[in-house]
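User: Please predict the structure of the protein below. I'd like the answer in structure-token form so I can feed it into my own downstream comparison script.

Assistant: Understood. Taking the following sequence of 651 residues as input:
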Amino acid sequence: MGLTPSDVINAIKGQSQEVTAGQVGMPPTPAGTNFQYTVNIQGRLNDVPDYENIIVKVDNQDGGRILRVRDIGRVELGAQSYSKTFMLDNKPATGIAIFQLPDANALDVAAAVKAKMDELQTSFPEGVAYTVPFDTTLFVSASIGEVYKTLYEAGILVLVVIILFLQDWRATLVPATTVPVTIIGAFAAMAAMGFTINLSTLFALILAIGIVVDDAIVIVEGVARHIEEGMEGQPAAEKAMDELFGPVIGITLVLMSVFLPASFIPGLTGEMFKQFALVIAATAFISAINAATLKPTQCALWLRKPTPPEKRNVVYRGFNAIYDRCERGYTALISRMVHVSGLMVLVALALIALAGYGLTRVPTSFLPIEDQGYVVLAVQLPDGASTERTQAIVERASDIAQKTPGVKVVLGITGISALDNNATLSSAGVLYVTFDDWSVREEHQGQDLLSIYTHLNKELGQIQEASIAVLVPPAIQGIGNAAGFTMQPQIRDGNFDYVLLDRVANAIIDKGEAQSSLSHLSTSFRVGAPQLQVDVNRIKAETLGITVNQVFTAVSTYVGSAYVTQINKFGNVFQVYAQAEAKSRISPEDLNNLKVKASNGTMVPLGTLIDIRVMPGAPLISLYNLYPTATIVGTNAPGFSSGQALSVMEQ
């Protein structure tokens, strides 16, 4: 037919384009023009039949025969890309990834998304539904729920301890009211500092519950002692405050000086402890104000002369009997220690030295691994594997994961590499394995994170055609792709020697695997992926009247697809691409059968102009700080901390 890809593309572009035709009668016009019309022309085509009927060529030598797109190709409304596939429990699905903005609250975003999806679901076609198979906010909600539970338990425990030791319900009310007053003040301070209710601030409140009652108990004990001596409530409170105001303020300042420096720690660690430290400091400050103002007033109004110990109930008498014996033993011990104070000083110095030594010897780590309700499976087939082969392995891995006790749902994605920041790669895939709710798994043995992790590693090891890594999510979302560590050897001299980079990365892994403190070392960087190197005989091409650009256009259009124009569909703008039929681009030999037009009009096979060689190469090149890098991932072995693993990797 004498047609090239450029001929078809130009025909489509020429007959499907957005046209602004203007208006008839638009000023400036002669006087007496009474009407003004907008001219509409159907320029852009939007339906499959319209594109099928686009005229590509008219053969005047053959009776004006018209050649249309449908005569030389096929038009379909399909996906923009077929490089990825989504499967939910091995059933076809499509995925929408939603990420919060830096200043957004994750729980608010999750609630808003679910509310919007419930609203949109009413307009879904019959048989179409949605689900949220992967939601990282579930762990946040569960964690906050546990913290709330601990907060309540801590409050109750504090009240029980106060009742046991003060043994007077009137005296108990004074420190008991400190807890809600101080927590309300803490929330006000959090709002003033722009903090939210999160794990750090709630943990600070848990600790603060036990701290804030100290000042109130000291005030109550002081006032109660003066009342026992015969004073009335108000004079007793005034005298007690004369004695205790300084110590209360001193205790508060010392407490604040302990926690405030943590808010000035630089880096990520400082950001993590900043809210925790400031909330405790603010709570202690509010507690001191409360103890110095409200508590004396409450003591003056509420406290009465206490009941003699012998007349208290059996619970108090039994507690006092045990406590008195402990107190006598403690007093005797302290008395003996005072008599050998010199020895005690030496013991104290030895303990301080031992603590310093232990501090240097105890392994360090960033944050412990937690059960966040899911794991990630990173699938890697041999280099050059097709998407079809990868999908088959992903489906097998999904079947194994679904049969694992404690697993709720499995989301499988073919065509992306989890170890390369989710870059597109035909030989890689990823599965997000979501567990049942924590409350459900707690009722069954063998459904904790470690058990599921061990089971998956064992079962997935039966798949010999691919390497499948079970990745535990990082302690903080967004910091890495998985728990463990990452090392980034780089090329910084500008030579782009990827073979050398691969050699260095594998040498580091080989040395690391010999260390007992390291485990699961691997790298996603490879330089042995089969690639086709096409060499164009430029002299021969020019001799035949074929430009090198024609060769480039033919190869890129047939094999890689070429953007042509746009269509308007469903209220959105989509793109139109031209590409060779699938059966014409299966093997490397198909490139030789492609044809380009010479200057004399003859069609020349590309096989006469190009040489094709299979060469190894890197399928993906990652950059770290703008330098080519090979990402090495690993974890600390059982019995070793992440700090020890990092130290060994640095060596």
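That's the full token string. The longest helix spans residues 267-302.
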